Amino acid sequence: MSIEYLNNKNEIRDKFLNLLRTKLDLEEIEIKDLEIGIFNASIDYARSLNIQLSWNSQAFVDTYNNISRSIYSNLNKDTYIKNTNLLSRLKSKDFLPHELAYMSKEELFPERWEDIIKRQKLRFKEAYEIKQVSMTDLIKCGKCKNNKISYQELQTRSGDESMTIFFTCIVCGHKWRT
Hints:
The chain is an alpha+beta fold. 48% of the residues lie in helices and 11% in strands.
């Protein structure tokens, strides 16, 4: 089916437009621009998955409904998402209405994702950070006999066994584990 067929008046699109008109405080031009963006994003997504571009295709209808539901739920501050700033950001022209459908979840609701992303980055950093310690009498490099050693503890076996400690000599680069 061609895109022209999709562009014809459609009951699904009309219902969504009416929902936007009744539930959101937006101008008519913004509502139409928003819906066109959702429609275009649905087409782009469907093409990427080789979904038939037809309102008779349940996969395409589901794609359109999922994107429109996601955008509406983020715009309406009374939904379970509780995104209180997105509608005001749209009204203050931080972005154009048709761009909403292409925004990531982090862009739609940065306030919610900011803390989650920070914690994830910190966890990632801590997991791969090498702890350096000088163990003068306890650990010495078997190759150069220096005591400048960095180590990392990892659980490589089952939980009831002790952790494996990986050592690296800072001076010569020799690596070993215990």
